[in-house]
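Repro case for the chain-ordering regression, as requested:
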Amino acid sequence: MPADIRKLIVQVDETRREMGRDVNPPTRRALAMAVIANPFAGRYEENLDALIAIGEELGALLGDKCVQALGIQPGQAHSYGKAAIVGEAGELEHAAAILHPKLGAPLRKAVEKGAALVPSAKKQGGVGTAVDVPLGHKDAAFVRSHFDAIEARVADAPRANEIVVAVAVTDSGRPLPRIGGLQVHEIQGVDGLR
Amino acid sequence: MNLIDIRRVFTQVEDIHHEGGPRAAQPLRRGAIAAVLTNPYAGRYEPDILPMMEALNPVGLDMARRLLAAMAVPAEAIQGYGKGAIIGAAGELEHGALWHVPGGYAMRELLGWKGDAAAYAKGISSGGQSGNALAIVPSTKKVGAPGTTLDVPLTHINASYVRSHFDAFEVRVPGAPKPDEMVLILAMSCGARVHARVGGLAADAIAKWDGQR
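-- result from build under test --
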């Protein structure tokens, strides 16, 4: 069964200046969020396959929405991340079922390649709860300039029987990165780390 | 001194399919755009702040255009609008008031308002529908810390009393405004609340074309 989506939200956060300095080109981070019904709210369900399928569906939908909002080709994406907020009548494991087994593959397709782990966060919460979605470079997790986080929050969700699922994609790292470490031009992109 | 120094631009577009009731055939699309700017008057009392109001005119137009593009709909699809400002703690509420004119007219111009601003301000109406975006753009403003939320009111673009279109859009830019910044916001919507059913003036019953009814 496809996800019962109540709301779909897409944000773009563009930083043009930081500490009085131009950021050239501006950094841009897109965030797509779906507010969905939790089919297992209010009860313990052993088999979470339905949520795993929803994760696969949303990996494609939200990944595409982000790339579209940035107006880039998939290969121009730099970093990504994912997160979920489970409403009060659900269970943390419901977020795990959406995020971990199958969401990654379609998301990687949306951004082309994606050798690196998709960093994630999850929590339970009430209406208006925020989650900090971790961000890491899609092809090499150790790229230091791209370690970041973007805050995801829906003012009227999750209701008790809902889940907020968030996917973030950027076309850039932090605004003024200068703490060294592995650089984008040094990426080998084979093992997902370097 | 350059009065306009934009640090960040934040856009949000949402599709509301339902809110526990029947699924809408056409989901309600709402969008907001927020620009994070340096407040040139932060940290002191400046008697003459009007130069900033003038300088904000092109900012408003650019934001309105960007918002419409992000919403991916033609101007004719916009049915509701609103605006707002969040002023960082080293500023003053009055700095937010600078947004009333440039924010409002930017959106109204984009949506097809063709009136004479001076005549309109005096309440002179030519009768009939003189264009679109006849209604005042509702607004809120406040002084706040980084990450403060602002509920931006929304009303119908042609008649403020259309009850199905009274709404509000919560806008919040994580990390902004810093004390010496301000967040200026425009919001638009493509329709009524998703399960609107409390009667009152309906959009298809607008008759006076005076911006209210």
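Ordering looks correct now. Strands of chain A lie at 5-18, 21-37, 79-86, 120-124, 130-137, 148-153, 162-170.
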